[in-house]
Amino acid sequence: MELNESKLGLKGSPTRVVKIAYSKVVRKGTILKVNDEETLNEAVSQMIKFMRKKELI
Fold first, then answer.
1. Per-residue pLDDT tens digits for 44-55
2. Per the confidence metrics, is the pTM higher than 0.90?
3. 5-41: buried (b, 16+ CB within 10 Å) or exposed (e) per residue?
4. Element (H, E) at 46
5. How many angstroms separate the CA atoms of 43 and 49, rounded?
């Protein structure tokens, strides 16, 4: 079987890249510091509120 070189590689490719777009990744977050039992309870409460808002729980 003989291959037609005009249908191979760049010559045979009808594809043309017109534009490349990159998505912007945005990470918004909150750092919760835990120093004692009181701040632990507050951090857990905030995490639960966040997960409920995002319908994860």
1. 999 999 999 999
2. no
3. eeeeeeeeeeeeeeeeeeeeeeeeeeeeeeeeeeeee
4. helix 37-53
5. 10
51/2 Cα distance (integer angstroms): 61
Tokens of 11: 């010559």
Check the CA dihedral 36-41-44-49 and report its sign: negative
Q: Tokens at residue 15, please?
A: 């594809």
Phi, psi torsion values for 13, nearest 5 degrees: -95, 120
Give dist(CA 43, CA 32) in Å, integer.
6
Torsion angle in degrees (nearest 10) through CA of 40, 41, 42, 47: 90
